[in-house]
Amino acid sequence: MIVSFSPPPTISTLQSIISAVKDLDELSAERKLSKYLGNASVAIYVFPSFEKSLDKYVQDEINEMERDMPDFAISSSRLRRIGDRISAYEIIYTFVLSGERKKVMTIWTIKDGKTYQITYLAHTEIFSYYLHTTNMMIDSFAFT
Length: 144
Prior knowledge:
The protein has 4 helices and 7 strands. It is 32% helix and 40% strand. It is globular. By secondary structure, the protein is an alpha+beta fold.
């Protein structure tokens, strides 16, 4: 089985991101954003599902994060569809890593005895700038 993402039609450049940031001071916008560019990532992990339901798997993962991550806090959680109408569960949360607050969107789905975890991680300051592009990639998720 192959899991694939389609790249979004356009990926924002530093200049277009800076021009979209109207609420930042004009002189410091580039300096503030350039500090964080390259500090966002999207990863796919594949695990055996261990015969667990999606609800049970997600709850176990959340319990582990609450135990292991400093200042772990869920800001939203929901059922959603990804790719070709694949049922999935999404949480958005924050935590502290090496003294810096990170914001994360993690999505889980189970297919053919495997659990797929898609994780988008970024500094809280830039999380929303890459979220649309990340969701476009996630919406292209496909099993082939």
